[in-house]
Amino acid sequence: MKSMKRIILTLLAIGAATASFCQQTDVNLPFTPQLEQLYQAADQRLTGQATNTRPVIGISTCEDSGKTRVNTVYIKAVERAGGIPLLLPCTRRPELIADLLQQVDALILTGGEDLHPLLYGEEPLQQLEEVDSSRDVYDLLLLHVALKRGIPILGICRGEQLCNVGMGGTLYQDLPSQQPQSLMHRQSIPASVGAHTITIEPDSYLYRLLGQRTAVVNSFHHQAIKEVAPGLKVSARAADGVVEAVEGFPTYNLLAVQFHPEHLVVGEQAAFFLPLFTNLIQRAKTFRR
Length: 289
Ligand code: MN
Hints:
The protein is of the alpha/beta class.
């Protein structure tokens, strides 16, 4: 509450500065009237004149040099799909994780570093990259509690690999060295541009969502699923056979993809992958009921 007050005071200060700046330069930036409109819109929510039916979508974060961070595109994708994004702080306290997840209707497990290979019974290869064991514990606790409570899950990139490892599967620690014939899965072009195709299983949940057997996805991984966990099945593969999506329906309320759909649903782009997020919102609403 204190920080909210500080933010508002800062905004007002900026508004005042803008106003005096405007007088000096005769540029009309209507900052303060805009702020009034924003206050009114917020007040309408508080007084119940506009009802909130949006489910709360928890988004996993990570710690980096004493700061908590997450890529903003996850937040924007949830907003665009009609959910309330809620960032879940990086903690290893199991009771706090359990309490945090009482506040959400669905969970997005986000991308990031390599998982520690000891988690799936392998010693680290030389090609293993950065690992963060405390994040591994945080993410695995989130997954454990979400699975136990039946909270709908969308796993993305590391999040997909995490679901697989947490449920008993294994990973390739490094595709280029372990599967030398594999395609380029680490694109150098922007994330908003697709890099390779995937083929979607016709009897999969993913196919019902996207309605196509093939799609072009972006690709930012050097690891991938090796042995698929019991309880999950492959719903899409790249042309080289690399697993690009898994799902757990109906036993587990879980869909997970190796690519980054959050980069493909914001801005001016076509919304082909938006159903991954709108479906999560739908599953969240069903879960809440
Ligand atoms: Mn890929």
